[in-house]
Amino acid sequence: MASSGENIAAGQASASAVVEGWLESPGHCRNIMSDAFTEMGMANAEDSESRYSTYWTQTLGNPR
């Protein structure tokens, strides 16, 4: 059965800071540690004119 999940964050300056924050958050950590997911991708986008300037997303999945 295919599964998917997502974690998002904004404002952190580094990938390690983002992951640390996700691991401290029960819901985000549950996504990261879930046995339902076997694959992961992570990306960030910069927008100096926005409120947080740096945005992060992590997608988690399990292919069919």
UniProtKB/TrEMBL annotation:
Residue spans of biased composition, Polar residues class: 51-64
A Pfam match: CAP
Domain of life where this protein originates: Bacteria
Location of the SCP domain: 5-59
Location of the region described as Disordered in the Swiss-Prot/TrEMBL record: 45-64
Protein name listed in UniProt: SCP domain-containing protein
Organism: Vreelandella sulfidaeris
Phylogenetic placement of the source organism: Bacteria, Pseudomonadati, Pseudomonadota, Gammaproteobacteria, Oceanospirillales
